[in-house]
Amino acid sequence: MELFVQALISGLMIGGVYLIITLGFNLAFGVLGVIDFVVGEWVMLGAFSGYWLSHYTALDPLAFLPVTAVIFAGLGFLVYLLLNHILKRRSARTLLMVFVFTFGLSTLFKGGALTAWGFNRRSMDTFLSSKTLFLGQFLIPEIRLAAFVFALVAALAVAWVLYFTRFGLSVRAVALDADKARLMGIKVNRVSAVVYCTYAALTGMAGEFIGAIYSVTPQMGVKYTIFAFFVAVLAGLGYVPGLIVAAVLLGVIESLVTIYWGAQYSLLIVFLALYAVLLLAPRGILGKGRRE
Questions:
Q1: pTM of the full structure
Q2: How far apart are CA 190 and CA 181, in angstroms?
Q3: pLDDT band for position 290 (50/70/90)?
Q4: pLDDT score of 270 more than 60
Q5: Contacts 24+ apart (CB under 8 A), 111-119
Q6: Strand, coil or helix: 284
Q7: Which has the closest alpha carbon to 25: 208, 180, 237?
Q8: What does the domain layout of the chain look like in residue ranges?
Q9: How far apart are CA 178 and CA 172, in angstroms?
Q10: How far is it, in rounded angstroms, from Cα 183 to Cα 228?
Q11: Pair 24, 86: CB distance under 8 Å
Q12: I want to staple 151 with a disulfide (CB 3.0 to 4.6 A). Which of 19, 74, 241, 290 is the partner?
């Protein structure tokens, strides 16, 4: 029983990291209407940015979270310009072109990282890496707790912007119907650009936490692309409020599978769960997502 509770606690903590990744991923899908396969490579590049910035400055990697956010927001803007150029065509093949573009960009980022930094796995230590919080007989690594708190704050901040500001109202209007939002005077391209930049910034910062919790490698992105898609589908594509439940559930599933069966089975179980959700609840477990 103690092992089970410890697995639940670990799953809850890592679920926070998955929440950061999927939060921006789902927002980008809701506003742009595309599934971005670059999400895992944003995580990978975020982890490498924290690693190399700390390596050359001897400062703590987490001190560079604001720097990472700015860098990735800029990179996200450049990618958005290319995406928007494709989306403007509005042809029957637009979604296919977006798929090819994001998949190709993901391959380019991973190949570039492999060429520049090789296959070696690197560790990224922070001042929290060796610290552990004791709750009775249960252990909580402080770096995981920090990632969970950061995710919770980011989720609350995004929710506040979405539901209590005029810009958030514009985002929701564009997500519902971009053409009608444009007729109402909303600058759809500007809203979409801000959303995509925010998504890239959040995902890059999540990569720093993941690099500190696990390790940094050019091949790490594929796993988090799968996990982002799993959480988005479980919550319901385009439905933001369900993300917290879905992200925590994924974290718990991964933790339980890793402890009781082994880490090598985690992706298999995630694939089976994803297939079951798509088959039984195509609009997510809460029934609020899109069917497309």
A1: 0.88
A2: 12
A3: low
A4: yes
A5: 113/41, 113/44, 113/45, 113/48, 113/218, 114/218, 114/219, 117/48, 117/218, 118/218, 119/217, 119/218, 119/219
A6: coil
A7: 237
A8: 2-280
A9: 10
A10: 33
A11: no
A12: 19
